[in-house]
Amino acid sequence: MRQGTTGNGLVEDVTLRAEDGYRLAAKRYVPDKPVRAHLIVAGATGVPQGYYRRFAEYARDRGFTVLTLDYRGIGLSRPEKLKQLDMSYLDWARLDLAAAVDEMARPEIPLFIVGHSFGGHAFGLLPNHRKVAGLYTFATGAGWHGWMPRLESLRVRLMWNLVLPPLTLLKGYSPWKMLGLGEDLPAGVFWQWRRWCRFPHYFFDDPAMPGISEQYATVTSPIVAANALDDLWALPRSRNAFMRAYRNAPVACVDIDPKLIEGRIGHMGYFKANSQRLWDEALACFAGWMGQPACVE
Prior knowledge:
By secondary structure, the chain is α/β, with parallel strands linked by helices. The protein has helices spanning 53-60, 91-104, 118-122, 150-171, 187-196, 212-216, 236-243, 276-290, and strands spanning 3-5, 9-17, 23-31, 37-42, 64-69, 111-116, 134-138, 173-174, 185-186, 223-228, 251-256.
């Protein structure tokens, strides 16, 4: 395990091993003060863990031990030949994020998840979600184009139906990086994601996914789902369409005015350097669930 020092603590390189043996690259941000709780950042589709570094350092400096990870096929967990990676989109939650939960769960220290987009989907798919005391997720939505404004809906449908399918067939993986959309995606992830985004309630409407609603119904941990009003991919109505699946969990939905921070938030701005006000609200939420003061410097 390689360590480095940044800010008020350590950064450790961690290798997670999923249940099927796949090795995943992760980083653990360890505070140099008493630990308040453990956090896992469950990132968005096609977003490498480095994108969440600023948030991880910010939370670490306030007493939280934070783990970030690259799902299989992404970032430092990408194999040499991505087109040879045969996987399901669900593996990112059921295997990869589940391995992170097992790594960070301690009986004496609360564990929380901070989600981004897919991270809010992943929580309900975890086989070990009962080890997690709560979820605070940003930008989680159902993905259906009908929840988006008209022009964004048109753009998304062009990408799903005309641009990306032939490129994915040609390359054997989905070349998002070439188009400036994010990390390249394994083909299995792309085709499943494309299919589920055709349904208003994502995979809950897919007849090929029996039993998934019942799985989400087993979640009883508290959840906060925060979405910016300028997030065209995950507006509040899209969030509501997905979050209703957590029907046995206390779910609080928060609409974020993008004027709260400088510049637009969109779908990716929640974790940019100027978003500390959003991070403070998430960390205060965790502190509240633990009965602690909101701010511990």
